[in-house]
């Protein structure tokens, strides 16, 4: 029951501040028993998504009250959420602030297993793009899954328990970007080049270069989200470049539709 209600909540059918239908109406709508409905509402309440009001019913909480760090909530966001510019911008702000530091830590601490996980995820992204370039149907889901796996591998490579457990928050951000963007092959190649360079900086144990490479990946993401008009600038002033000479060259941008 929680799953069915989550689909309605995250798709925008039920909005913050609105009252949910009565329990009997939910039973009829979903063909479920009253105990099942109550259990679903209890799960959503425990996650801060709804609040039971005695004598009135159940109200949808404001977005700021939702437990966005819970893996179940981030999964629902990735599966059911409509593109929400404010949500995407706030998740991006988190990533922009943290991922350069995480990349530097990974460059210091990554093991051979961590590097293999990054390489396998990167190869999955590349294979999905090459398939599309060869005329196969563009598999956005596979591409985003590998993209998430790539960044999650970097989080885990810090060998910091907190960072590793926060990696799941990447999924809704990355999934929604890939799902809604209409990037050209050239733009995707540019993005892959930045990911490859980041991976190589980590593999070569160059923390400062890895930090800068992560900023360049985030700059590309900001462009794809429509946060900046320039794929080489972040949401604020562009950082001072000190990437090594083998950094990928800037691709000619073709703004996505």
UniProtKB/TrEMBL annotation:
SUPFAM superfamilies for the chain: GntR ligand-binding domain-like, Winged helix' DNA-binding domain
Q: Name one GO molecular function term.
A: DNA binding
Q: Which Gene3D superfamilies match?
A: GntR ligand-binding domain-like, Winged helix-like DNA-binding domain superfamily/Winged helix DNA-binding domain
Domain HTH gntR-type: from-to ranges: 1-63
Record keyword DNA-binding present: yes
Keyword Plastid on this protein? no
Give the record's keywords alphabetically. Answer: DNA-binding, Transcription, Transcription regulation
One short Pfam name that applies is: GntR
Q: Where is this region: Disordered?
A: 224-257
Highest taxon, organism lineage: Bacteria
Q: Which InterPro entries match?
A: GntR_C, TF_FadR/GntR_C, Tscrpt_reg_HTH_GntR, WH-like_DNA-bd_sf, WH_DNA-bd_sf
PANTHER family in the cross-refs: TRANSCRIPTIONAL REGULATOR, GNTR FAMILY (PTHR43537), UXU OPERON TRANSCRIPTIONAL REGULATOR (PTHR43537:SF5)
Protein name as it appears in the record: GntR-like protein
């Amino acid at each position: 029951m929680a799953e069915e209600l989550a689909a309605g909540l995250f798709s925008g059918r039920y909005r913050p501040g609105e009252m949910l239908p009565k329990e009997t109406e939910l039973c009829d709508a979903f063909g479920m028993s009253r105990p099942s409905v109550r259990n679903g509402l209890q799960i959503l309440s425990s996650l801060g998504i709804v609040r039971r009001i005695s004598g009135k019913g159940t109200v949808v909480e404001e977005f700021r009250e939702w437990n966005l760090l819970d893996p179940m909530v981030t999964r629902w966001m990735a599966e059911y959420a409509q593109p929400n510019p404010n949500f995407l911008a706030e998740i991006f702000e988190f990533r922009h602030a943290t991922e350069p530091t995480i990349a530097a830590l990974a460059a210091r601490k990554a093991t051979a297993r961590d590097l293999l996980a990054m390489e396998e995820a990167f190869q999955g992204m590349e294979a999905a793009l090459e398939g599309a370039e060869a005329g196969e149907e563009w598999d956005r889901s596979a591409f985003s899954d590998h993209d998430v796996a790539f960044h999650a591998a970097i989080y885990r490579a810090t060998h910091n328990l907190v960072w590793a457990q926060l990696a799941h928050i990447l999924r809704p951000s990355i999934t929604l970007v890939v799902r809604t963007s209409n990037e050209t092959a050239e733009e995707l190649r540019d993005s892959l080049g930045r990911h490859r360079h980041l991976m190589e900086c980590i593999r070569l144990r160059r923390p400062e270069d890895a930090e800068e490479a992560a900023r360049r990946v985030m700059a590309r993401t900001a462009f794809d989200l429509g946060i900046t008009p320039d794929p080489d600038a972040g949401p604020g002033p562009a950082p001072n470049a000190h990437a090594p000479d083998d950094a990928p060259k800037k691709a000619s941008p073709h703004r996505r539709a």
